[in-house]
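WARN no homologs supplied; continuing
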Amino acid sequence: MKWRNLAKQRHIAPIQTEQQLVAAYKSVFGRKGEDVEIVLADLAAHTGFYLVEPPGTDLSQYQAGYSAGQRAAFGRLFHFLSLSDEQMRALEEAARAEAEQI
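OK structure emitted
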C-alpha cells in the first residue's frame, strides 16, 4: 500500500493543496457522531491542549517544549475543524473531564 501525501502538489498548486487538505481533515474529523467526539476529546486530553502550565512552573526545558509540541499537534487538527462556539465549549469540557481521569 502506498500512502498518499500532498508534498509534490504544495509547490505547484498551494491553494488547491490547502483546500484538499482541509477537505480531508473535515472528512475524517468533521463528521457528527459519538466516535468523533470521543476521539477529539481523547486527543485534546492526551495532548494537554486545554492545559497550560502557569508561569513559574518548575518544568525542565525539555518537558516544557514537549508539552508545547503536544498542544501544537492537536492545534493543527483543531485548525481544520469548523466547530461552533457551543461545540468548542463542549469539546473543552469533555477533554478536561477526560484529562482528570488520565
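The chain is about 70% helix and 0% strand.
OK
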